[in-house]
Design a protein that fits this description.
The chain is mainly beta. The protein has 1 helix and 5 strands. It has a 5-stranded antiparallel sheet with strand order 4-3-2-1-5. Strand 3 and strand 4 form a beta hairpin. The relative contact order is 0.32.
């Protein structure tokens, strides 16, 4: 898992770097390198933290 993904906690807002069309998502859980995110335009997605580094969003 990337260093950034390891810091993600439930409630944090993120974007998927390869899927900007999914919009901003809210982290639901981060367990064992698998990050569950509820994206505005895609719904709930489980992201493999070893393959994708999610981008934290601080300004909405």
């Amino acid at each position: 898992m990337s260093d950034i993904n390891a810091l993600l906690e439930p409630g944090m807002l993120v974007e998927h770097p390869d899927r900007p069309d999914w919009g901003i998502g809210q982290v639901q859980s981060n367990i064992g390198g698998r990050v569950t995110v509820n994206f505005r335009e895609q719904g709930k997605v489980v992201v493999d933290g070893e393959r994708v580094t999610l981008l934290p969003v601080f300004d909405v």
